[in-house]
Design brief:
- The structure is a single chain.
- The chain is α/β, with parallel strands linked by helices.
- The chain is 36% helix and 25% strand.
- Strands 7-8-9-6-10-11-12-14-13 form a 9-stranded mixed sheet.
- Strand 4, helix 5 and strand 5 form a beta-alpha-beta unit.
- Helix 7 packs across helix 9.
- The protein is globular, with a radius of gyration of 24 Å.
Length: 427
């Protein structure tokens, strides 16, 4: 294996939350020499330089001149401008996701990189998640994919729709395993706490017949990042948050199965054996890995793991989803939400919407699950009352905004948005 015999000089543009993480990891890396950073907020930059000892540059031009690689961790709106200046100076660029604010800008970045013969990589970090890495080679021609990426509300990132903030991670991961063009997109979304959509659901249809159902929310009560891939004779689950995975496969059942073998028989009489083939998940630092694999690509003149083209396609599909959402629902017309599933995710989504003033139809085939979900919501509201963040009247109004249904057909009548919060449809 080729061994890097020198360290690439790297500079970081942007010293916000993620920029500080990049600075720390690049300082530790054996493949980079961290030269310094530039932050538009010079006062913030001075504090970081004083605290951690990184060299602060007072202009972008001076930093670019001093390095081989520019790591762009600035707000999305400035990605194109920063990348353009760096590439025209002959520097390789690592660009945090999304690659840019528009597809047109992303395409120009690609053209510039080719013209100036430099390499670029986009920071779609879930490609380096150890759970995804462990199963990626086993994902072969998936025909149905389901993802849920839910996060608690954080003002950071709300300047862009949840599709560009969170969902784009899953869009990129899906595009990396589905080797087919996108045929159609159908999506719904709603703004609850910010000016751009906070929750979105999209159905992505591919030319080869694969369908991906993708849900993202940044107003959930609990964090979740899970994907499920269904393919012939296999089910693969990836938990990006807990970094665990599960692979369930089927094969022809033996004539004489063992006492503990799991055997299924279909309507045609075919018998299949269910077995588990869970790979080991090797712990890693995904951000450090994505940065260091980019160094490998530069030194060895190979293709980066997440190319500029990959980042552009993820952005293109993201905007297809946003366009589909914009044609349907706005914050001012949204009144009634159906949430299918009263489990951990469903009751959290129902709580958030109901507390924000929406009428919520909480649907689950299990009355027990509905009762448990409503009890949890009431308990959470009681805790909020105890903390002084809401009043008893707020609790009563929130509870009254939620209507429970056990019949999905009745529950979805007259709603503006349907949020699926279960592993599979209940119909």
């Amino acid at each position: 294996m080729f061994k890097i015999i020198f360290m690439l000089k790297v500079g970081v543009l942007g010293a916000g939350h993620l920029g500080k993480i990049h600075l720390r990891l690049l300082q530790q890396s054996e493949k980079y020499e961290l030269v310094g950073f530039y932050d538009e907020n010079q006062e913030n930059g001075a504090k970081i330089a004083a605290e951690f000892g990184y060299k602060q540059f007072d202009t972008i031009a001076k930093l670019i001149h001093a390095v081989d690689v520019i790591d762009i961790v600035t707000p999305t709106l400035s990605h194109y401008k920063c990348a353009k200046v760096a590439i025209k100076s002959g520097k390789h660029v690592f660009i945090e996701k999304p690659i840019s604010n528009t597809v047109e800008e992303a395409e120009q970045i690609i053209a510039l990189a080719k013209e100036y013969k430099v390499k670029g990589q986009v920071g779609h970090v879930e490609r380096f998640n150890p759970a995804f890495i462990a199963v990626k080679d086993q994902i072969e021609n998936p025909m149905f994919i389901e993802t849920h990426r839910l996060a608690e509300f954080n003002p950071r990132g709300t300047d862009v729709p949840v599709v560009l903030d969170l969902m784009i991670h899953d869009i990129d991961a899906i595009l990396s395993v589905v080797k087919s063009k996108v045929k159609a997109v159908h999506a719904s979304g709603v703004s609850v706490l910010s000016q751009s959509p906070d929750i979105a659901n999209a159905r992505i249809e591919f030319e080869n017949g694969c369908v991906a159902n993708v849900t993202s929310s940044r107003i959930s009560m609990k964090n979740m990042r899970k994907s499920r891939f269904f393919q012939k004779d296999a089910y693969i689950s990836v938990d990006y948050l807990d970094k665990v995975c599960e692979v369930v496969k089927m094969k022809d059942a033996p004539e004489n199965p063992g006492d503990f073998d799991i055997i299924l028989q279909n309507a045609e009489g075919e018998r299949k054996q269910i077995y588990f083939n869970n790979p080991d998940v090797a712990p890693n630092n995904a951000i450090l890995d994505e940065l260091e694999t980019f160094a490998n690509a530069i030194v060895n003149n190979t293709t980066p793991v997440v190319t500029l083209e990959d980042g552009t396609e993820a952005l293109r599909v993201a905007y297809m989803i946003i366009d589909s959402m914009n044609k349907k629902i706005t914050k001012h017309t949204m009144k009634t939400i159906a949430v299918i599933g009263a489990g951990t995710m469903g009751k959290g989504i129902a709580h958030t919407f109901a507390q924000s003033g929406f009428v919520v139809k909480l649907i689950d085939v299990s009355e027990k699950a509905l009762d448990k979900g409503m009890a949890t919501i009431a308990s959470n509201l009681d805790r909020m009352i105890a903390k002084g963040t809401i009043t008893e009247a707020d609790k009563i109004q929130t509870i009254s905004n939620i209507i429970a249904y056990t019949d999905i057909k009745d529950g979805v009548v007259g709603v503006d948005l349907v949020v699926e919060a279960v592993p599979r449809m209940l119909i």
